[in-house]
Amino acid sequence: MSPSYQDLLAAAREVIPEVEPSDVAPKVEAGDGPLIIDVRETAEWDQGHLPGAVHIPRGFLESRVGNVTSGTDQELLISCASGQRSLLAAKTLSDMGYSNVTNLAGGFARWKQNNYPVEVPRILSPAQRSRYSRHVLIPEVGEEGQLKLLDSKALLIGAGGLGSPAAYYLAAAGVGTIGLVDDDVVDESNLQRQIIHTTDRVGVNKGESAKEAIRALNPEVQVNVHPFRVNRDNVLDLLEQYDVVVDGADNFPTRYLLADASLMTRTPLVHASILRFEGHASVFTPYDGPCYRCLFPEPPPPDLAPSCGEAGVLGVLCGVMGNIQATEAIKVLLDIGDTLSGRLLIYDALGMTFTELKVRRDPDCPSCGPNADLQLRDYEAWCAGVGSHDPVGAGA
Amino acid sequence: MSTVKIPPVLRQAAGGERTVDVSGATVGEVLTNLCDQHPAVGAQILTPDGELHKYVNVYVNDEDARLLQWTDTPVGDGDTLMILPAMAGGAR
Ligand SMILES: [Zn+2]
Q1: Percentage of chain A with pLDDT > 90?
Q2: Which of A110, A289, A304, B5 could form an SS bridge with A300, CB 3.0 to 4.6 Å?
Q3: What is the pLDDT of residue A387?
Q4: Which residues in chain A have their CB less than 8 angstroms from residue B59's CB?
Q5: Which residues surround ligand 1, an ion (CB under 5 A)?
Q6: Phi, then psi, of A89 in degrees rounded to 5
Q7: For residue B91, is it within any domain?
Q8: Residue A251 CA to ligand 1 centre (angstroms)
Q9: Between chains, do B8 and A278 touch, taking CB under 8 Å as contact?
Q10: What is the pLDDT of residues A141-181, one digit of tens each?
């Protein structure tokens, strides 16, 4: 005769130890308990669950358990609503070779009755679910990823050619907090490429102007305007408030200062620069990939550093490169895909070619190498030609 | 002959060319010959002592020359050198 449901539960109890909520609550509250796998359906999970638990609906248990566990000897605690589904789930895991599996007796119901702490997962509001529906549909983003973006903070250096498209798309994507550092005001000659600004905002601070555009696009985004220039005194304080920095600066002192400061605060740096028809882009992941100065150890002397003002730039090039930065920033924030870390992407709009160069960590790097003398240097003076050839930038 | 790709900042100094064919057995020789052909390029990428400025990198066939043998890296027919200066443009 085939086993009944009760037979299956009894057989599972033979091999799976059960623990009472009181047995594990102190450890769970201290954060050093076993890995808790909650096997209920999504609607049940959304109502609340044990702190730190991971959610795998029973139907996906076998296929997904490997993604959340480090090995078959890891200590696992399985939970459901009343302790029955989880008992059978635990038995299945035991059959799969997991040797250290226990079942939460009485499940989430008994846990809650005993007034142990409960975590209620955040979910998107109906309005957010609608606004970000095309993100939620992508498996790599999903609701969880969208919530992560909403919690994220991106700092944009410059609300100009690169910052305009980057800020616009990051705001549309629902990056919850966007910081804009720019001490400049909108000029008529900016509007050929700086699409976040408008003709009637000529003369307005670029950060304030961009804030207005972002408010109209996505009022949910918190915009912090920092209407000053990045310098040695404010850079660390700024970076510490954000999860990623998007470098769209128009000058070498700021770029080199950011490169060094982002190593100090360990903030991922999304780089792009543009000139005429050509753009560079990369991602510098502190101490995990190369840094800016692994690629270009020292800034050029002032007479050899033409700015866009002098050299010109194709307006639409800014859109391509700024959006590559926005793309990379989102990937960094969500920790998905392969970023440009370790690669320099060169876009030639005239030839319509994308070239990729390998960038490696330089063991002699003056900023991130093992013998580097990392400090916030006075690159303003350096680039102005004051002591430009003394070894200040050469490091140890 | 190696092919040297000229970055946009140096194009005017190189007579408007996007690529220049240059002879030389090493990266250093190619750069010296390039700067002989186009002295305005030399004025931008070389220090007064004739060394490459540290804001300029050179790639040989998509690999960083500093991680090969830098200016001693051998090059020949069919090799491509890319002169890669840092660019600052972004905001204004
Ligand atoms: Zn480095």
Answers
A1: 83
A2: A304
A3: 43
A4: 357
A5: A 291, 293-294, 365, 367-368
A6: -65, -40
A7: no
A8: 19
A9: yes
A10: 999 999 999 999 999 999 999 999 999 999 999 999 999 99
Q: pTM surpassing 0.95?
A: no
User: How far is the CA of A239 from the CAs of A235, A328, B33, in angstroms?
Assistant: 6, 18, 45
Distance CA A12, CA A85 (A): 11
Pairing, β B2-5 against β A18-19: unpaired
In a domain, B90, yes or no: no
The one-letter code for the residue type at A326 is A
pLDDT, tens digit, 9 for 90 and up, residues A178-205: 999 999 999 999 999 999 999 999 999 9
Contact A253, A244 (CB under 8 A): no
| Fold type of domain A152-388 | Rossmann fold (3.40.50)
Confidence of residue B3 (pLDDT cuts 50, 70, 90): very high
Spatial separation of the C-alpha atoms in residues A156 and A338, rounded to whole Å: 21
Domains of chain A: which residue ranges?
5-113, 152-388
Determine the Cα–Cα distance for residues A312 and A128; give it in Å rounded to an integer. Answer: 40
The beta strand positions in A285-348, using DSSP E, are: 343-348
**For residues A338-351, average pLDDT:** 95
pLDDT of A394 reads 25
- Is A306 part of the contact surface with chain B (CB cutoff 8 Å)? yes
In this structure, the dihedral spanned by the alpha carbons of residues B72, B73, B76 and B82, taken in order and rounded to 10 degrees, is -110
A141-163: buried (b, 16+ CB within 10 Å) or exposed (e) per residue? Answer: bebebbbbbbebbbbbbbbbbbb
The DSSP output letter for A357 is E
Residue B25 burial (CB count, 10 A): 12
